[in-house]
Amino acid sequence: MLSIICASRLDAATLTLPEAVRLALEREPDLRATAGKLEAARGQADQAGRWSNPELQLSLEDWPLRSSGWASSKRLGGVSQTVPFPGKKRLEREIGAAGVRLSQAELELRRAETARAAKVAFFQVLAARNLLGEETGMVQSAERLATAAKKRVDAGAVPEDVSLRAAIPLEKARMELADAGRDLAIAQRTLAALLGRPDLREAVVEGALAESANPALLSRDPAALFACHPSGKAAQTGVHRAQLEVRRARLEVYPDVTVGASAGREAETNAAIGQVQLGIPLPIFDDASGKRREARANLASAQAQAEAIRLRLTREWSSAAARLRTASAQAKTYREQILPKANEALERMQAGFDEGKYELIDLLEIQRTAMDARIGYQQKLLELNTAQADLEALLGKL
After folding, report:
1. What is the per-residue pLDDT across 375-392, written as a single tens digit (0 to 9) for each?
2. Which residue, 9, 76, 168, 195, could crosslink 262 as a Cys pair with Cβ 3.0–4.6 Å?
3. Looking at the predicted structure, is the pLDDT value of residue 3 above 60?
4. Nearest to 187 by CA among 171, 202, 167, 208
């Protein structure tokens, strides 16, 4: 048995759901990759707001090639700087900031998905463990029945084939028990792999499956989902960034100006001289119409994508909420009606069989019915908890 107190230290104890989610969020490689993209976006945003570096200019003019050129030449030194058209750098900084928000939303989305996957894997271990317990109880019941049947055969009260008929469900129960043990081992390995801790495949999970839906989840307004879900945030930010890029593309036709100033000495008189340069590109061949067209198309695409995400989130919420309501209602029916009736019927049949009132085939049938009810209940609990995890992921809850 293993314990998880921190990511680097294990003692003999248990693994809880919050600890499983924490480990998944800490060790998921995709999260680390997405965090790297966020840092890269921050670097791009920082760079977008900076002007280009000034240019150092040194020149020697009127240099005679057949005499002492240095003394006879005009020497100038200065700097030049490209000055962007007003508004360009501001928009580029805003576009860079929108890119950072996009990366942040992507990271939030990956975190929600990772937490959801960890929860579902944890619930699958709990469900597999519960089913293993049910199968263990079935084997014990089948063993008692086989023993009772053998005693009756040995006493000559019933034919020998009764013992054989009792041995068949016993062997079947043992095979189903082995299958349940295999499924539990698979679920544990899956959880350990998801947490990035293969050494936890033997860890004992602590907790129980929720037996009813969380009413706070079902009371949420799906219309507000787009604003709080990470993909909705990303879509809104994408539209805003595309709008900024359209505004930036409109300024592309206005050229950046290069200004410069130089100072030096005149060749003949050695007098101090100055020089000013001004460079303005002429938008003759490139009017930036392609960039404006691209920006408008990107905006239309971002708006369509945002609407598609809104509709997808609404569908996913409706589906998960319906599954949660159905599973909760069915689990309640199992818990309050089917299981009590099945257990009572089994107890009466067992007592009647012990008194010789019922045949073996009757007891075998009611045993299987009760077992199917217990398995069905566990399956509904797993569906309930999985649907609840889906809703929590849609709300961005970790």
Report:
1. 999 999 999 999 999 998
2. 76
3. no
4. 202
In a domain, 355, yes or no: yes
Q: What is the pLDDT of residue 63?
A: 67
* DSSP β-bridge partners for residue 78: 57, 262
The tally of domains found in the chain comes to: 1
Question: Residue 42 is part of a domain; what is its CATH number?
Answer: 1.20.1600.10
Query: Which residues lie below 8 Å from residue 328, measured CB to CB, with a gap of 6+?
Result: 212, 213, 384
Q: Which residues contact 165 (CB under 8 A, 6 or more apart)?
A: 149, 360, 361, 364
Residue 338: give the domain boundaries. Answer: 23-49+90-254+289-394
Residue 337 lies in a domain: yes
Whether residue 68 is contained in a domain is answered as no
Cβ-based neighbour number of residue 392 at 10 Å: 18
- In whole angstroms, give the CA distance from residue 205 to residue 121: 11
* Domain membership flag for residue 133: yes
Query: How far is it between the farthest Cα atoms of the chain?
Result: 139
Residue 311: exposure state from Cβ atoms within 10 A (0-12, 13-18, ≥19): exposed
Q: How far is it, in rounded angstroms, from Cα 128 to Cα 188?
A: 9
